[in-house]
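User: quick one, fold this
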Amino acid sequence: LTWVITEYRFSRVVIGYFAAISGAYFLLTRLALRNFLRRWLAREGVGRKVVFVGAGSSALAMVERMRRMPELGVRVQGFFTRDGAPDPKLPAPVLGSYSQVGKLSEHEGLQEVIVALPREDAREEESILRSLGETAFDVRLVPDVYDYIVLGCSVDDFDQLPVLALNGAPIDPMGAFWKRFLDIVGASVALVLFSPIFLLLALLVKLTSRGPIFYGQVRMSTDGSTFRMWKFRSMKVDAESKTGAVWASKDDDRRTPIGAFLRGTSLDEIPQFWNVLVGDMALVGPRPERPEFVQQFRGKIPAYMLRHKVKAGITGWAQVNGWRGDTSLEKRIEFDLYYIRHYSLGLDFKILFLTVLRGFVHKNAY
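Assistant:
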């Protein structure tokens, strides 16, 4: 008896059909399930009933998110506040004061209590938790740190001890790997494509002014570390000998004959692809600033230092939205922090596409 083993090969068309149909199937089933849950949980008496102890910023932020996600099935029954007085500004009725939390068993159908005291009422926390310990309700504790969360918040388990992490690293190890992979590939391709322009600009810089072709300037990047960022030299050699560290201005007389053109077209920044290749910078990220300016801004602009939670980039979300050069620092930080909070490889590709689409020339680039 002879066994014949045959190999069945799927065509690429079949694999393509499978990928398209399975992707559509999972998307449609998830949408259908979410819509079903929303309709079902909208019925009276269905869902998980909860009450809040405390009505501070953290509690109100949590209620707002619960209302935006009705498919969770959470129904907020009310609040317990310090004095228990009615408050029309709250999104649910006041059920009593902190001292009445122990009587929650009287509220029929209640399943969960969320303790979210404002900081000024922190001393009441111990007695409230002790009184809730004598009930069978599920209890969740929400610390009042909402005003301090800029980038995000996570809870780590350190040997069964909960640790609240505020504004931690926004990019996980796998995301960092793919971002670095994109940087290496993108910088390598850019250096090859720009090599003729690179040589031409180097020659023009050397022929039109005395001094070196490249200018290395110390900038700040991830977690406050510094590196030397390279540019084609667009200023005179002794440009800051009298003024010290200052930003370039319109019609700046310190520029070389070709400096205005280089800065206005952003071509002076082509050498930064080398910074990306060696790992000092990324293709996309907040633009790096000089340490002298960082010291000025960090005490004046809230959350300024959080922009250093990711590697500095050649281009960024603030730049493609017009916030570069002599524009509002506050708006620039706002856009930088948006990029960090919403980081994804897709967002990086979008920023790179917009950088190419909108060009390198900008009215504030001087």
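User: anything notable?
Assistant: The first strand starts at residue 48 and ends at 53.
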